[in-house]
Amino acid sequence: MSYDVRQEITEDFYLCCKSARNHLSKQSDTLSWIKVSLNGPHLEHFSFRMGNQIFFIQIEDVDNNLACPGQREAFLEKAKSWNAHALIMPMKKIGIKWAPLLSNWGLEEALTGKLINPSALITDQEIEITDNELHDFAIQVVKNILTNEGKTINSSQNNPEFNPSIFFDEKGKQSWVIVRADRYPKKTATRPHNIEEIAQSPQLVKYSGYFASVTVASAKTNTNPNPKLGLLLRGEGYVVNYGGLKAIHNSGITPSNASNKKKSLMDDFVTAAKVIGGKPNTTSLNQSIKMAHEQLLGEIVPKAKVTAIAQKLNDGPMSYSHDDLAFSVALNFFKNKAYIDSLSTQQMVARLTLIESINKKMINPLLAAAFEDALYNLYK
Prior knowledge:
The protein is an alpha+beta fold. The protein has three domains: about 10-120, Trna Endonuclease, Chain: A, domain 1, CATH 3.40.1350.10; about 130-275; about 280-380, no CATH class. It has helices at about 10-25, 70-80, 130-150, 195-200, 265-270, 280-295, 305-315, 320-335, 345-360, 365-380, and strands spanning about 30-35, 45-50, 55-60, 85-95, 95-100, 105-110, 115, 150-155, 165-170, 175-185, 210-220, 235-250, 270-275. A hairpin with a 2-residue loop joins strand 4 (about 85-95) and strand 5. Helix 6 (about 280-295) crosses helix 7 (about 305-315), helix 8 (about 320-335) packs parallel to helix 10 and helix 9 (about 345-360) runs antiparallel to helix 10.
């Protein structure tokens, strides 16, 4: 099904949602947003993770004066498909401002009306991510890569029943991407069977269209053959294989990373990632920046540029250990053509430092292998 994600909403609905999100953000510093934009389809108005739990929210005007998009039945069905909690946030307009009607979190269970404290629902249970979570994660991966390449994300939506997944701008022209995800040992995600038909739809045919495959493995897969340890669990480490943008329909512009050439895992994008769990604190982030700038890059790259990349990775949907973040940041510059000559000697130092991190078990082994593979191929 094709869908134009650039759906318009009323200003009052936007203000109500903004007030609701601001209120929720103040309740916990471990809340991680999944959906914050108001791009359609509006099955949930926003959603977030805490620990091993996911929460879907619909706002509701207690005075019934605000038109809130989204049907309750579809909202409940989507929450079920995500193994998520379906919650309602009653809002009331006082003067020109919106505020939650209920105390504390301001949330109630959609089916029972019971007051809910999300923090109290977090457990130590291992929960495998759903296919919908995997799809959303894949979209975040592609969006991060496109942004890092200088493209502008106009909008996105994470419902796999609607296409495309992403609209972006490059060189002043709009393009779209259909994203699909799969789990290891699959190496490539399957395209929609009607992808050509989607590309020729009236809403999309005037823009360049691309397909992006993202396959995901557990970071434990490389260290233990037990199939159970290879499950993709909420909060565990992931390794990502991104296949680049593959052209479906071209309206006159080809994105800089679009290619039909087969690429290695690291040549595209590989990282050991955690989709849940706190981000590194300021001290840890600064230590990662220092390690990348001084030990790995030998102060050849300006610290401001190293800091910018570190901050961008840290602000994304993934979180990193100290060494993982440092090596991920450094890799951006080792792969940058502008620095290959100046870093040709320093790359040996970085690879020796990598061995130390491996011996101390300070880096994810899959990320370590991918880092070494990338530098070997670039600087051999």
